[in-house]
Batch of 2 targets.
Target 1
Amino acid sequence: MELSGVSGSSSYDQLQQLQLQKEKDKKAAEQAAAESAQITAAGTATDKTFETAVQSTSQNIDTLEISPEGRAYQQKMQAPPAPADSSVSETSSTDSTKSTKVLTSLTEEEISTLVDEGTITQAEANAELARRAALKEAENNQKNNSSHTENPEIDDEE
């Protein structure tokens, strides 16, 4: 005997499907809650570790009070020294200008000899050599730029 006109599932089947769906939703909610609890627990553990580290660090710090005399001495030591005589500072500035002018006409070997003799400092020698290198590089760049603009066919071939 065949039933005709019956389509779909019975109400019992629909009820079972709804119940299964509710169970799935409940499991998903429980899993999400468990994951959230793990994240919260991990965050709390990290916060406690951080607090412990901060507390142990702060307990190891000593404090020191500096007397007014000590502060005055500290400020005095940090201040730039005042020149004893203004003519001394003028002389030293003219000497460095003279040495710069003299260094431009010397070879690297002569500059090295002056450093060895103590006539000039290593810093002055390094500054002169750096100035020469920068000047040479600028000249090379200028030559390269002018050669590229004069011969545009060369650029096309490259």
Target 2
Amino acid sequence: MTKTIKWLAPALIVLAAGGLYWKSQHHAEPASRPQSEKAARIHYETYENGRFPFSLPFPKGLLIPGDGSDNGDGMTFTSPDQQTVMTASGINNATESTLQDEYRSALKEQSESGAPRQVTFKAIKKNWYVVSGTEGDKIFYQKTYLVDDQFMTFRIRYPASQRAQWDPIVAHVSGKFIVTPGSIQ
């Protein structure tokens, strides 16, 4: 019986420690909900560009639409604290650039603030690319489509300190950024 007790006590300690570790890694608090759930709780409105064939959602109240550009090519949205700025715009491909040309240019782009720019994510597909990273204390994200010889781009910059709030929003907006070829003449 003494041999059984000597073996049982360490085994129970290991099991208890493992259970506590598992619980600490799998405890679901509201802050650890999937990003899509967080983004879904926000009320979105849709911005539809009148000149270029694209639309995207924006979080009502968190981003306020500006007056738009004079020629109708896009819109700037700004947060009430002026710390987050999102733009959605289109441009005709007058220089006949390829998507790869624009992608390479976006990778080399300098930050607006002069802060060092570090690309932490990049992807290119058949008709779009994404470039994202940091510029000092800001996070930037850009998604650009090339469709019907037109570039349509969504960009956002927000404080890294607000990442928990904005990352799920950016994922939602990017996923719902829709280009409808041939819908506007």
